[in-house]
Amino acid sequence: MTNKGVFDLKGYLTDKKAIVDKALHTYFPQPEGPASDVIRAMRYSLFAGGKRLRPILCMGGSEAVGGSGTDVLPVACSLELIHTYSLIHDDLPVMDDDDLRRGKPTNHKVFGEAVAMLAGDGLLTEAFHLITAEELSDHIPPRAILKVVRMIARAAGYGGMVGGQVVDIQWEGKTADFPVVEYIHTHKTGAMITASVTSGAMLAGGDKSQLQAITSYGEKIGLAFQIADDILDIVGDSEAMGKTAGADEQKGKMTYPSVLGLEKSKKMQSELVNSAVDSLKEFDRGAEPLRQIAQYVIERKK
Amino acid sequence: MTNKGVFDLKGYLTDKKAIVDKALHTYFPQPEGPASDVIRAMRYSLFAGGKRLRPILCMGGSEAVGGSGTDVLPVACSLELIHTYSLIHDDLPVMDDDDLRRGKPTNHKVFGEAVAMLAGDGLLTEAFHLITAEELSDHIPPRAILKVVRMIARAAGYGGMVGGQVVDIQWEGKTADFPVVEYIHTHKTGAMITASVTSGAMLAGGDKSQLQAITSYGEKIGLAFQIADDILDIVGDSEAMGKTAGADEQKGKMTYPSVLGLEKSKKMQSELVNSAVDSLKEFDRGAEPLRQIAQYVIERKK
Lengths: 302, 302
Hints:
Two copies of one chain form a homodimer.
Chain A: H1 9-27, H2 36-46, H3 53-64, H4 73-91, E1 100-101, E2 104-105, H5 107-111, H6 113-131, H7 134-137, H8 142-156, H9 161-170, H10 178-203, H11 208-235, H12 238-241, H13 247-251, H14 256-260, H15 262-279, H16 288-299
Antiparallel strand pairs in A: 1-2
Helix pairs in contact in A: 1-3, 2-6, 3-4, 3-10, 3-16, 4-6, 4-10, 8-10, 9-10, 10-11, 11-15, 11-16, 15-16
C-alpha cells in the first residue's frame, strides 16, 4: 500500500515474487552428489523467470482471511514446483514438443529427454515433501494441512491438471465444441489456480463461507487466465512472451478464440474478472491484492 | 498361521495381495468422462499383476509393532501407485525402452507415449491424494500421517528413487565402480522399500527403537531385493519373469553381478537377508511375516 491507501499491485507482485524466489532457493539444494544432473535440471526450470502467480495467489488467499501470507510459504512454493513440473513434461517432444519457454531453451533441449522427464517427476514429488515441512505444522493444525495436500493432489491429478492435459493432447488438430475446450481450460489450468488461492485461505483458517467465495474467485480467474493465454497467443508479442506467438493455431490446439471467436472470448474474460471480484465483496481490504490480481490476469503481456 | 503355529508365507502373501487388489479397485475410479483414456492407462498398469510387495511390507510393518495391517491400507496402496508410476516412466523409450512388463505390452505400447507419461504423473499425484484420505486420519494422528507423507516423498524423489533412476540412466554402457552401483540400488529400489515397511510401523505407533530396527531391516532387504533382481536377469526364466532375461547386460546396466561377479553377489544377498532378520530380534511373532518375506525376497522366481 502507498501512504495514500492506493494499492500498488506492481510493488506487491514484485515483493511477493522476491519472497517466493528466496524461499525456493532456501528449500532447494545445490546440485551435488551422483544425482546432481537432475537437481540442476529441476533448478534450471524452477528459476527460469516464472511470474510465481500460483504462490502469490496462495499468499493472497491467506491475507484475504487475515493471515500474513508468509504463514503459508512452503505450500505457496510447492505450488510453483507442481506448476514447473507440468511445464517441463508439457514441453517434451511426446507432448507439445516446444523448444522455447520463457525465452530460454526448454528443459529437455538442455538436459535431454530422460533427465527432463525425471526432473519433472522430482519436482512433483518434492512438492509433497515441501507441503509437509515441519515449518508449516509448527503453526498450522496438521489436519488442515492434510486437507490441503488432498485438495492440491486432486487438482493436480487425473481429475484436474493431468486430466486437462490428456484431453488437450487428444483433441489436437480436431474440431471440438465448447464443452471440450471448457473442460480442457478448467482442468489444465483452472484447477491448480483455484487450489492455489483456496489452499492459502484454508491454511490461514478461513471459514466455510469465506472458502466458498475464494474458491468461486479462483475458478473464475483460472478460466480467465487461460482465455487470456489463448488471446495472447493470437495478439501477443513473441518477444515479450518468451515463446512463439501463433503456436496454438499451428498445433491445432483447442482454444476459446478458435471455438468462440476473438471478440466473444475477450468479452467472456472481462465478465469472468468482474464476477471474480464480485465473489470477494464480503471481504475487507485484506482481499485487495486478489481483487487487483483478477484484473492483472487478463491485462498481462506474457 | 496354521494351527501348528508354522507361519504360512504363501497364504499370507496371497491374502494380503487380495486385500490390496480389492482396496485399489475401490479407490480407483472406472474410466469415464473426457479424461477416461488416462484413467484406463493408469488402471492397465496398476492391475497388471504386480506382487504388491511394497503394500505388503507396509502392512507387515504395522503388524510388527502391534497394528492390524489393514489399519494402514490407504498408505499401503499409495506405495503401489508410486511403484507403478515409476515402472511406466522407466519403460518409456526415453528411459529403458521396454516393450514387455509382467508378460504384457508396456503402457506406452498400448496407450502411446504421451498418455503413458501422463498416466505415470497421474498415479504419482493420486498417491498423495490417497495417503491423505480421511479414512486414515480417522484413527491415526494427522501429525504422524504428515511425517509419513514427508518420508515417502523423500524416498520417491530426487534424494531417493528419482535420484537412483537418473544415475542408472546416465551410467548405462559405462564402467562404474562399486559405489555407483550401490548408489543406484539403494536409491532406485531400496529407498521406497525401506519407506514402505517403515511407514507402516510409524503409522501403527512404533516407538523410536522399533522404527530404527524396522528401517535397518528395510534397507537390507531393499538392497537384497535389487541384487536378486540383477541375479534373476542372468539366471532367471524369461517366461516366469514376464520380461526378457539378459536385458540388463544388453543395455549395459550397472548391476551387482557386473561389478562384483555372480558368486559374490549371491553371497552378499544372503548376508543381507540374515542381517535383516537379525534386525528384528527384539520383535515378537508379529514380525514373523517380515522375517519370512526377507527370505522370499531373494528366493522368488520373478
